[in-house]
Amino acid sequence: MDEQTTPEPAVTGPDAAYREGALDLLGLLAYGALTAFDRLAEDARMAPGLADKVQLATMAGRQVDHFGRIRDRLAESGVDVMAAMQPFHEPFNGYHEHTRPKDWLEGLVKAYVGDGIAVDFYREVAAFVDADTRALVHEVLADGGHGDFVVGRVRGAIEDDPKVGGRLALWGRRLVGEALSQAQRVAADRDALTSLLTGTVDRPGLDLAAVSRMFSRLIENHTRRMATLGLQS
Amino acid sequence: MDEQTTPEPAVTGPDAAYREGALDLLGLLAYGALTAFDRLAEDARMAPGLADKVQLATMAGRQVDHFGRIRDRLAESGVDVMAAMQPFHEPFNGYHEHTRPKDWLEGLVKAYVGDGIAVDFYREVAAFVDADTRALVHEVLADGGHGDFVVGRVRGAIEDDPKVGGRLALWGRRLVGEALSQAQRVAADRDALTSLLTGTVDRPGLDLAAVSRMFSRLIENHTRRMATLGLQS
């Protein structure tokens, strides 16, 4: 059983641990959406032209919509989104502080590669929550076609100047390193979230082999995304 | 008749002038929404706490929705939003460059007082366009309850430190001065927009007395907003 406090510990026993894990997932997503908004809005300011700015602004606006959806869902369960997000301030702020894009292209790669690995991870966790929460998570994580925009811009920039590819490949590796290091931190701090994946005494989860396969999937998808951008991972 | 070029001069004669004026209004609103997004997202970064940041992020997200609605409407008329916004880059950029909030409170007052006078003006112009365009304008300009948030924050800050009121009152006056000076510029440059208000040979509009009454309404509303914030205008 998990002993850490929840924002609203309405029930105890296995259900409480499960509920806490699901709330953690939503809190994670909500704070992720807020920080993504912030970053995309800042990146929009580096856009080389107004059409590019509009794209980034639209992506930022979608994050606010996502935040609102998750806040409303949490409110239905009697949970304040502010409380649910609180445990995730440090890892997200840490990630963003350590991966400030220096220019427009670094911002695009971060939106694609960094968010990509986060989204994959959320989807893996969502497999273990109830159908309603899972549907919300999948809806919030749908790409909305902006990936194509990023891919076009990054590939175009590498075509114009192949040296850019080397720099952005390094950047992509750094993004993944930071993301995994912060994910580690979340996993260590949030037993309820981790036990959604690994199971508890009362509820079976993934065994060690399955966890390792999950990480393989995350890395494979990352490699595929880097290749799509024309970058070596 | 108005001689300036339109993004899509599909018809000529009085209808063309009218159409151009309506397109100008939508282009103005679209670029206004984009720059408002930008500014609100930047102001969100100055928020003293996460709840305040969420409020500003939500306001910024709404601007992106508005932009999308206007872009779609323009597209239905075969007009590219980028072309429609082009004439308004300079006045909006000028306004924002000259009125950069130095802190969180200045940002809030700008969102309330500066946007307030702009919204009033758009509504005045919207009285002269077709019902569909007018409905879109009114929908996009609906406040969404964020005004109450700003009023609460600003009044609270003045209660905590009455000196703040003096500083923000000066700031409010500067905002209006800059807004009017940029509006003047738009009026001088965009005959079609101006003639929506003043009419043409073929279509009656406001006479000079009516234009002057309109300005009185704008100033009265501004004074009322300043008073609502607890500021002398």
UniProtKB/TrEMBL annotation, chains A, B:
Domain of life: Bacteria
Domain Ferritin-like: 17-199
Pfam families hit by this protein: MiaE_2 (PF13794)
Name of this chain's protein: tRNA-(MS[2]IO[6]A)-hydroxylase (MiaE)-like
Organism: Friedmanniella luteola
